[in-house]
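Q: Structure for this?
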Amino acid sequence: MSQNGSIRQRRTSTLNNDGVLFPGGRSSPIPRPTSLASVRSTNYSETDHSEILSPTPRRHYLIQRQSSQWLQSGGGISPSTSRPSSPLNPNHPTGGFRRHKPSLSFSSLAGNSKQKGAKVSGLNDSLARRWVRWMHKNKLKGWVLPIQILLALWVKWAVGLGSYSGENTPPMYGDYEAQRHWLEITYHLPVRMWYKYDLQYWGLDYPPLTAYVSWIFGYIANKINPAWVALDSSRGIELPNSKIYMRATVLVCDLLIYLPALFYFATKSSLLRHRSIRARHVAFFTLLLQPALILIDSGHFQYNSVMLGLTCQAFNYFLEGQDLLGAICFVASLGFKQMALYYSPAVFSYLLGKCLLLGWKEGSAHLIRIGLVTVLSFIVLFLPFLYPSFPENLLPPIQRIFPFARGLFEDKVANFWCTSNVVFKWNRHFSASLLPKLATGLTAVAFMPTMWALLSPGIKGFGSMASLYHTEASVDGTENKKSRRPAPTVSLLAHSLFQCSLSFFLFSFQVHEKTILVPLLPVSLLMITSAPTVEGSDWEWGVLLNNVGCFSMWPLLRRDGLSVQYVSLLALWNYAIGHNPFRQKSLQALTLAVYSAIFVLHISELVISPPARYPDIFPVLNTLISGGVFGLAWLWSLKRLVELSWAMGSLGTQRSSAPSSLRMNSLSNGTRTKPLAVQEVFSSSIYGDNSATGGNGHNSQRHSVSPASSMVRRRNTSVLPPTREEGPSTASVVDLNEPSM
Amino acid sequence: MDNDTRNEHTFSPKRSKHMSLPVLPSGSDSHIRMRKVSNTSSIAGQSGIPPKVNLEYINTSGTEEKNSRNIWSLSGCDWDLLVIGTAIKLLLFPAYRSTDFEVHRNWMAITHTLPISKWYYEATSEWTLDYPPFFAYFEYLLSIPASFIDSKMVDLKNLNYDAWTVIAYQRSTVIVSELVMAFALSWFVRRSLRPDLQRIISASLYFHPGFLIVDHIHFQYNGFLFGILLWSILMARNNQKLLSGVLFAILLNFKHIYMYIAPAYFIYLLRSYCMDPSGSISIPSFIRLAQSVIAVFAVSFGPFIWLRQISQVLSRLFPFTRGLNHAYWAPNFWALITALDRVLLKLVHFRGLQLDVKQAGVESTSRGLVGDTVFAVIPNVAPIHTFAITLLLQAVFLVKLWRHPTYKSFVTAITLCGYVSFLFGWHVHEKAILLVLVPLSLLAGERHSYFRTFTIASVAGIFSLFPLLFTPAETLIKTVYSLLWCIMVLPPMSKQLYEFPSSAVGVVVDFLERAYLYGFVLLQIFTSLYPVLAHRGLPTSQGQTVDGQSTAEVLSKLEFLPLMLTSVYCAIGVIWAFLRLGFLYLTEQF
């Protein structure tokens, strides 16, 4: 065994010497028979595991190789996971091709990893990682999650000690009073009066689920102290205990809806479950302490976490292929806060695209099922308003939920309208009735690419899911329906949700600065499925957007008296995830520029008082900076979408009409005999696309092929017989995300 | 390296003190440190260096010298802890603050506006200056930037000023001054022979819930003061005893509560610095020490001696007009005695026990826990009694220290001196438990029996601080934080130190101690739910009377029941830990 290893070591080193990277097309394989023999031997060697657990696993230079492998795995792997799934993991969804990796990694990359490994591993080390590692080493693994949740609750509660929106500012107060007022009116008034009662004083303008939740909390509050929610007489009540009660309701919502959804995503979703438990803990930690949401929900006071949590859960269900449950969750999310509409084009396109992929028979049935469930959910949601008189009762909530009578933008918001308003006064050039239409049109144009990205695979590969899957019993004997699998386009869904909601934020009508939380959720989810230095810069953009998102809400937070919490949470989160713009590889210039601008703005706001001529100079500069970043983020997401869907489409059309990711999806089941052709497709596309063995992980190198990889490809297509794919693959996938312990 | 080494460590009953297991590697240098430590152990363990006093506590090999020369260089782990700690403490700015906040603001105003001759006479506010002069100078330093930020902060007449500026400023000064402790703790790890354990201990002290509750919420500067104490202990460890003595003298002039542990310092310095091992006094050392300490006191009290105000200063520092117990009983011996008195009184009432009942004592109980404590059944205690008991018990431990003036013995003696004063002192405040917990933490990594003592004392002591924060908003803050602290500190240390009890009695005691520790969960649930229960009891029972008095009256009479229970339950643990530590110390072979 040891001899085998040493032989391999020697051979890989020789291979390393001539395995110089060079750009080349897919069809330029260089035959190297001797080396191939060694590669071949390692493929089936039993010692591969010892290599996986080798005592000095450094961060592999392969970390940047991941641009397109996810494409082959259907919904199995994240578009941007930094680390391929561990072969030791039984859930490992892509057992099919992993075993070819050792040749790639140890031949052409050993030298690189030696030289740069330390640097790269330093890049990924963060407080969260170090802490999780320490906990695991001290056999406190089981305590990691409870501690994380307790810590998150503690931080939220500590932020809640501070002031809230509209504290001590009669007569109207702020968002806190609005939410408290809804407890009062829903508890004391009949349902038909909810959307009609004294609309001037914080009339209810959220969908019914908010009202029902308010009713529950109002009921409990009334049990504890009726004065907190007494009708009319409790307006503006600001007792210490009533404040604690309201803060506690937010925490309870968090605990019941938001945290479980995040937990499910970070530990069980198909995007992350193949990662090591430490990586998942770190991912969960990153989401838990996301500062923007804590500042708004626990500081400013709102219940955004409910809406975001329900959306996240819907996304989880879509990833699992459980579209009906996902639809119910999404309707619930919409029913809690109409802001979730910002996601709806993406969700709609995904579901429709999937129906198209399923073909006529399956697809139409699926479409009808989803439609029925959606309509039923809405009916249940509005049930109290449908009875006794049907249309009259339903109208007030609808009118309240969609207020088209307000202005283009309310405050200084970092969206397109407000930012461009600095140079072009929209109100002067367009009439008030035209502007909403303009905004709607522009929004629709902005989210068109999303819909196209999600629908076009369906149109191109119409019915391809049906032809690939055979409804046979899976391993555990349960029936395996085609509609129960996620469509391959699910890998685009996170990006689509982000792009779509950002389009709404940038271009739509009547946007609040708090609305940035809506695009921040999908980009944070994308971020944790990725890692620093990974191609595509999902992680870097995620961090940047989260920080700039917080910054864009700074005027609001400062008004609320949450400046210390703003500083503290941002510092804590950025430090915890190990964000260091000076050391990051991609996006460094933009990040540094934006941060220095933010820094200068904060300092000057602290030191200089604004000139009398421009009293709003600081908020305006704020919107200019953040609006610029959000605009760039929109372009970036567009680029990512085009990249991803192009890769998907091009791969598919080369060999057959169906996207090739479907094939991989069928492979990943692990029990079926794999046709040779498919394997060929996959191996060439994987290594052909996988550029980034040596470069900086930029897309310009997507089609360079290293000699080693092309060798592997040739070898695979010519020598390997069609085999049954069972058991763990034998790739020496070094735990890329975890530095050596 | 992992599995084999660790298993050997965890399960071998007798470990070499020099072996170590870095548990919290900070980034990339963990391997290096590991190597260094093993170097050291081989040197110290095999080559037979004559046992100098502190050898076993200091990594004396030169490998870490280069690193340790620079006080300001922090390792990655230190930075981690510093950033988290600061961020967490920043979040507590808007939290509840006690009158101590106004006390310190007032002192800033006094020192800033008045000349030094009037500092100890000023009485506009009821919170007169009653700390020693160094603290007054410290407040003067703080008042200089304060006057630039917001001049109203240092206005003597501006009582109870609570604008955001003063809150943010004073809270930040606590965080910044606490860095003294942070650096001392980081320095403790540097040359420790078991850096893994010492690191956990240091982190546990930096994040101690006691400091969070008392300093960052309740408001005081204990982190800063204990930082000086830790520097002093550190200097003793590093064989710089003169410096240690000077630092302690400085500390005494910041806050005179540290006089409780002064006897241990006196004996230790006398024995190990002023006398050589043979027992003869080294006059030059003695003079050097005496000169330095006197110089410190001269700087501190000099101006007031010059102004002939020394008696006024001393009368401010030592007001002997308070009762045996503080408003809320600190969990000490007297709390148990007082509780016993209350129970006996009830027995007298209900069972007709033949005991003398003093009327003053009965009235004292009906006034709840506030004010003077006068016993109804048990003979009263005078200040002189408490002093006698304190000194007597301290003397027992000081004799041991005299015989074995080693570093470890010294730290144990400090802890025990603080302990005795806390348990038997007159009018002890519950915050004084920190005087026990901080030096005791330094001993926690010794052995399992020390660790168990530390666990019991810490849990009971921290819990006894909870009533300091009575506002409901802070309940979650203090409980969750303490719980997190316990989870992060106790299991990792226990994993390295655990020893199965060696005798049947040990097993029983071990079980009882565990049961006691888990009892705190029940106690917390009870104290949290009690107000709700009492509140619910009120509306139903109004009007109707049961046995001559309504339930509401009974409940309001028992308003202090949770406090009393907390105090008594914590007192049991604190006293048990004291007995453990005292026994350990007296039987320890140094």
